[in-house]
Amino acid sequence: xxxxxxxxxxxxxxxxxxxxxxxxxxxxxxxxxxxxxxxxxxxxxxxxxxxxxxxxxxxxxxxxxxxxxxxxxxxxxxxxxxxxxxxxxxxxxxxxxxxxxx
Length: 102
Description:
4 helices
């Protein structure tokens, strides 16, 4: 499993403001396009949620519904194999999903 960061070296409090649909779309596209160079011929991506439990349907933040899910939908529309809404603490679930179609 490879991990790609959307933000680096910024205060945690700034992350929600910095994550935009456009930024995530660019990162998703770049990752899907470049992973074959690292030996992953058919990349299958998984986007971790920002909030605990991926927001609990809005109970713990709205970024998943307002930013992350639309970015994933856009990427899927462009043919990127990507799953979303994985709580960040559940990388193992994301890994299983990514490996299930290989």
